[in-house]
Write a structure and sequence with these properties.
Shape: elongated
Number of helices: 30
Number of strands: 17
Distance between the termini: 21 Å
Number of domains: 4
Strand order of the largest sheet: 1-2-3-4-5-6-7-8
CATH superfamily of the largest domain: Glycosidases
Helix content: 40-55%
Strand content: 5-15%
Structural class: alpha/beta
Radius of gyration: 36 Å
CATH architecture of the largest domain: Alpha-Beta Barrel
CATH topology of the largest domain: TIM Barrel
C-alpha cells in the first residue's frame, strides 16, 4: 500500500469509527426503580418447554426467585402444572408475593384439573398469594367463550378469597362488559410491540389504553398483567425489537407507572426460548434477563444501542484494512478517487458484516435456525466477494490515471522484418457463401508473408464444403483447404490438425472464426508486438457486423461490448486477459511448447491462454476492431453460446485448480490468479443464485402453507440480494456510459441482454461441477409454430421461474402479516430475483420478432479502442 492509499485508509477508518460512535450515542433514560412491583415469571430454561412437558426443577425455580428477590415485590405465575405449583411456597421463603394462575385451554377435563389444583395450591399458600388469574388470553385465542370463562371464574371464587380475574388484552375487556362485572379486577395486557406501535409512542399508547379502560369501567381496579417489549424479533409496522428499544420502553414505562401508581407486572423476568416455536423470534426475547440469567441492558446508566461498539468497530476496521491491502496491490495508476471509492466499499462491507454477525449471534439458536444461518452466511459471503470484485473493476475502469499496458500505435516495420503468419480457419457445416466471404477478406490482407489453412472437420454434405475447397484452389498456393472426416476433438482437434500442417517457417499462428471478415491491416498492425521475445499472445476484440439487422442483434452487440471494452482492458493491466479463439495470434514456438490446443476442453482458447500464462509468457490486448463476425440469430443460439463459455470456464477451473490457488508451482502471478478467479466469480454467483431461488421458492411455499410456523428469513440477509442487484446494475450502467460510450438505451439494452443470460450461466456453472461433458438445450421441434410460441419455448425454464416467483410474491403478501416490513422486503427480494428470468422471456420474444428495427436500441459505434492517456 503506497502513501496515498495509507492516508485514505486511515481517513476512512476514522470516519468509520465516527459513524459507529454516532450510531451508539448514549440515550439518557429514567433510571430503573430500586424495586419494581412485579415480573411475569416463567422459570423455563434452554431445552425445557411446557408443550413438551419438560419442566424446571424445584432448585432451578428457587434459584430464579433468589435472583429476583430484593428487586421486585411479586411475581406472576401462569400455571400450577408440575413443579410450577411450588412457586408460591418458594416465593414465600424469598419474601415475594405471587399472582397465581391456571392455564385454561380447549381441553375441558384438563381445565377442571387445573382449577382444582389452583384451589389446592392457593389454600396451601394463601398468605403470599395476592391475586388469582383463571386463564391467560383464553378469549384472545378463542379457546373458550365468555360464558365458559365466567363459569370458571365463579367456580374459583367459591373456594378462593383472594381477588379473582382472567388476563386479556385491552380490546377484549372493552368488548365484553359482562365479563368485567364478574371479575374482581381487570388484568390487562398492554404490549404495544404486537400492535406495531413505535417505541417512542409506546408508553403514551399504554397510558391511553389504560385510561380508556378506566373511563369505560370506573371503580373497577385495573392491574397491568403484562407490559413489555422484546429485545429482538420481526419489525411490526413501526415497532422495532431491539435491546435498546426494550430498555427505552421499560425504563420510560416504569417512570410513568411509579408516578401514576399503576399496579403492573413486567413481561417478563427471563427469556423463554421455548416460545420461539409459538411466537417467532420475538416470543423468546421478552425477558429483562437472558437465558443465562444475565441482565440484557443497563438499569441506571445511559442506554447504548451496541454496548461493545468499540470492539466491533476495531474488528471491522482491521478487516477493512486487510481487504484494502489486497485491493490496493499494484494500484499505482489508480487515482485517489478510485482508492477512496474502494475504501468506502470495504469499510461499508466490513461494518455491515460485523454488525450482522453480532446481531445474529444474539439469537437463541436451534439446529434448524443454525443451519439456516450458516446457509445464509455462506450466501452473504459470496455476495460480498462479488461486490468487492465488481467494485475493484469499477474503480480501475473509471479512475485509472494511465493505462500502462494498453498498446500504443506501432511504427511501420519493413516487410522483411515481419514474421510469417499461418492463419487457421476451423469450420464445421458452415454456409459456403459465408465461408467464401471470409476467405476473400483474407486474400485482401496487406501483409507480405502469410498462409491460410481452412480446416473443415466432419461436415457430411459435400455440397457444403466442396464449393469452399474449389474457391481456395483459385486463390493460389497460400490458401490450403482440408476436409477431414472423422476428426475428434471438435474445434481444438481441427486447430491441432492445422498446426501439424503449418508451414515450418511460420512464426505466428493466427485464428479466426469462419464468419469473420478481417480488415486488410490486421496482421501488419498486430504482429509487431511479437518483437518482445516474451510476448506469446496478441489478441484483438471480437466484433460483429450485423448489429444493424434488428433490435435483438443490436442488444447482443451492446452486451458483448462490455467485456471487450471494460473487462479485457482492466485485465490487460495485469497481463491476465482471456484469450478467445478469434482474432487471436499465438507465437508458434510457444504453442508447440505447451502442447497445442486442449481437445478435452470446449473453451480451448481460454484454456490455452491460461497454460501460456502458467509458463510465464506475456499477452497483449489491442482494443481495436480488426475483424467482424456474425452474432447468433436467435435467443436460443445466444444462450447456447454463453452456456458453452460458462461451462468451459468451470472445466478450466477444475483442471487448473491447484495452479489457480497457488498450490502448484507455476509462473502465474497473484494478479493473474485474481483476475481469472474474480472474472469467473459473478458466473459462480449466478449458479449459487439459482440454488438460492429454489430454496426461496421452497421457503415461500412454506410461508404460505404454514404461516404460523414459517416467517421470512432475517431481514438483514434478505437485504443483501437487493444491494447486490442494484450495485451490479449501477456499475454496469455507469461503465457503459463512460467506457463503452453507450447511450442510455444501449446501456439498458445491454443490461437486459446480460440479465437474460443469468439462468443459462447458472445452469452451466452447476452442470460444470458435476459433469465433464457439455449439455445442450433442446431446440423446440415444432418448426411450424409461430414466432411468439417458439420464443416462449426457447425461454420455457425462465418462464416457469418467472411465474413461480410471481405466484410466491402474491402468496406471501396475502398472508395475514403481509403488511409487515420483513414480509414486504422478502416479497421485494423475490421480485428482484424475478427480473433476470423475466428479462430472458422478454429478450426471447424480441428475438422472435426479427423485423423490429435496430434503431429502437441504436447500433453501437465502431470499436476504436481507448485513449491511452485518459485520466
Amino acid at each position: 500500500m503506497n502513501r496515498s492509499g495509507l492516508i485514505i485508509t486511515i481517513i476512512m477508518g476514522c470516519l468509520a469509527v465516527l459513524l459507529w460512535k454516532i450510531v451508539n450515542v448514549p440515550n439518557m433514560e429514567p433510571p430503573w426503580p430500586s424495586k419494581i412491583q412485579g415480573f411475569s415469571f416463567s422459570p423455563f430454561r434452554e431445552n425445557q418447554s411446557p408443550s413438551k412437558k419438560i419442566y424446571p426443577t424445584v432448585e432451578q425455580i428457587d434459584k430464579d426467585l433468589a435472583t429476583l428477590a430484593g428487586d421486585v415485590h411479586a411475581v406472576r405465575a401462569y400455571t400450577v402444572e408440575d413443579t410450577l405449583a411450588e412457586i408460591p411456597r418458594l416465593a414465600a421463603a424469598r419474601g415475594l408475593n405471587v399472582v397465581l394462575g391456571a392455564w385454561i385451554t380447549r381441553d375441558e377435563q384438563a381445565n377442571e384439573e387445573q382449577i382444582a389444583k389452583l384451589i389446592k395450591v392457593y389454600r396451601e399458600n394463601h398468605r403470599n398469594i395476592v391475586r388469582v388469574l383463571v386463564g391467560n388470553e383464553v378469549l384472545l385465542r378463542t379457546d373458550q367463550t365468555v360464558d365458559q370463562m365466567i363459569n370458571y371464574i365463579e367456580t374459583a371464587k367459591k373456594s378462593i378469597w383472594a381477588p379473582v380475574s382472567i388476563a386479556e388484552p385491552w380490546h377484549i375487556w372493552l368488548k365484553y362488559p359482562k365479563l368485567v362485572e364478574k371479575v374482581d379486577f381487570i388484568a390487562v395486557h398492554l404490549l404495544p410491540y404486537w400492535e406495531g406501535i413505535p417505541v417512542d409512542e409506546a408508553v403514551d399508547y399504554c397510558v391511553m389504553r389504560y385510561n380508556e379502560l378506566k373511563q369505560a369501567y370506573p371503580g373497577k381496579e385495573i392491574v397491568i398483567g403484562e407490559v413489555g417489549w422484546p429485545s429482538g424479533g420481526r419489525i411490526r409496522q413501526g415497532a422495532v425489537a431491539s435491546p435498546t428499544n426494550q430498555a427505552k420502553f421499560l425504563r420510560r414505562f416504569l417512570d410513568v407507572a411509579e408516578k401514576n401508581n399503576y399496579t403492573y407486572y413486567i413481561m417478563e423476568a427471563f427469556d423463554q426460548i421455548w416460545k420461539k416455536d409459538l411466537e417467532g423470534e420475538a416470543g423468546s426475547l421478552w425477558g429483562v434477563y437472558n437465558d443465562l440469567r444475565q441482565p440484557k441492558f443497563e438499569f441506571t446508566q445511559p442506554v447504548v444501542p451496541i454496548p461493545h461498539w468499540r470492539e466491533l468497530a476495531a474488528i471491522s476496521i482491521v478487516l477493512a484494512v486487510l481487504i484494502l491491502l489486497l485491493l490496493f496491490r499494484d494500484s499505482k495508476g489508480l487515482l485517489d478517487t478510485g482508492r477512496g471509492f474502494l475504501a468506502i466499499i470495504a469499510y461499508a462491507i466490513t461494518t455491515f458484516a460485523v454488525w450482522v454477525i453480532y446481531d445474529f449471534q444474539r439469537q437463541y439458536m436451534s439446529i434448524s435456525s443454525l443451519v439456516v444461518g450458516i446457509v445464509l452466511l455462506f450466501a452473504a459471503t459470496g455476495a460480498i466477494l462479488v461486490i468487492l470484485a465488481e467494485a475493484h473493476e469499477w474503480a480501475e475502469s473509471l479512475w485509472t490515471r494511465k493505462w500502462r499496458r494498453l498498446p500504443k500505435p506501432v511504427e511501420a516495420i519493413a516487410d522483411e522484418d515481419l514474421p510469417m503468419v499461418s492463419i487457421h480457419v476451423p469450420a464445421y457445416n458452415e454456409p459456403p457463401d459465408m465461408m467464401i466471404q471470409t476467405i476473400n477478406a483474407l486474400a485482401q490482407l496487406d501483409y507480405p508473408r502469410f498462409e491460410v489453412l481452412i480446416i473443415d472437420n466432419n461436415t457430411k454434405d459435400p455440397a457444403v464444403w466442396q464449393p469452399v475447397e474449389a474457391h481456395c484452389q483459385t486463390l493460389g498456393s497460400r490458401f490450403r483447404f482440408f476436409h477431414v472426416d472423422p476428426l475428434a476433438g471438435f474445434k481444438a482437434g481441427a486447430l491441432n490438425y492445422a498446426l501439424r500442417e503449418t508451414a515450418p517457417e511460420a512464426e505466428v499462428v493466427a485464428v479466426i472464426d469462419s464468419d469473420y471478415i478481417v480488415e486488410p491491416n490486421w496482421l501488419r498492425a498486430l504482429t509487431p508486438h511479437f518483437a518482445d521475445p516474451n510476448m506469446a499472445i496478441v489478441q484483438g476484440p471480437q466484433d460483429y457486423r450485423d448489429g444493424d439487422e434488428n433490435t435483438f442483434k443490436a442488444m447482443c452487440l451492446a452486451e458483448y461490448r462490455g467485456f471487450f471494452q471494460i473487462g479485457m482492458v482492466t485485465r490487460n493491466e495485469r497481463n491476465a486477459i482471456i484469450q478467445h479463439g478469434t482474432m487471436t495470434m499465438v507465437r508458434r514456438k510457444v504453442l508447440d511448447e505447451v502442447g497445442g490446443w486442449a481437445e478435452w476442453c470446449i473453451t480451448e482458447d481460454a484454456e490455452l491462454g491460461l497454460r501460456i500464462f502458467e509458463k510465464g509468457y506475456a499477452a497483449c490486448y489491442v482494443p481495436y476492431s480488426f475483424g467482424k463476425g456474425l452474432m447468433p440469430d436467435t435467443f436460443l443460439d445466444f444462450k447456447k453460446q454463453r452456456f458453452r463459455w460458462a461451462y468451459g470456464s468451470v472445466l478450466i477451473l477444475r483442471h487448473h485448480m491447484m495452479a489457480m490457488f497457488g498450490l502448484q508451482k507455476t509462473k502465474l502471478t497473484r494478479g493473474q490468479r485474481y483476475h481469472f478467479l474474480a472474472g469467473w466469480l459473478p458466473w459462480f454467483a449466478d449458479g449459487i443464485n439459482m440454488l438460492f431461488n429454489l430454496l426461496a421458492l421452497g421457503w415461500s411455499c412454506g410461508m404460505i402453507i404454514f404461516p404460523d410456523y414459517l416467517s421470512p428469513p432475517h431481514i438483514v440477509f434478505a437485504f443483501l440480494p437487493v444491494v447486490l442487484f442494484f450495485f451490479k446494475s449501477l456499475k454496469m450502467f455507469f461503465l457503459y456510459r463512460t467506457r463503452v460510450t453507450a447511450s442510455r438505451r444501449q446501456s439498458l439494452a445491454a443490461g437486459l441482454a446480460g440479465l437474460a443470460l443469468s439462468h443459462t450461466i447458472a445452469r452451466a456453472m452447476l452442470t460444470g461441477f458435476i459433469t465433464r461433458k457439455i449439455g445442450f438445450f433442446r431446440t423446440p421441434k415444432k418448426a411450424q409454430a409461430n414466432a411468439f410460441l417458439k420464443a416462449l419455448g426457447d425461454a420455457r425454464e425462465e418462464l416457469l421461474f418467472t411465474v413461480a416467483l410471481c405466484l410466491a410474491i402474491v402468496g406471501v403478501l396475502l398472508r395475514e402479516d403481509g403488511d409487515m416490513l420483513d414480509v414486504r422486503i422478502w416479497a421485494l427480494v423475490l421480485a428482484i430475483q424475478t427480473i433476470p428470468y423475466a428479462a430472458s422471456v422478454l429478450v426471447s420474444l424480441i428475438s422472435g420478432l426479427p423485423k423490429l428495427p435496430a434503431k429502437l436500441v441504436g447500433v453501437m459505434a465502431p470499436l476504436r479502442g481507448m485513449n491511452t492517456d485518459e485520466q
